[in-house]
Amino acid sequence: MLLLLSAAFAADLVAGRATYEANCTACHGMLADGNGPAAIAFESKPVDFTKATWWSTRTDADVASAIRAGKPGTPMSAFSQLTEAQVGDLVAWLRTRAATP
Question: What pLDDT, on the 0 to 100 scale, is given for residue 2?
Answer without folding.
Answer: 42
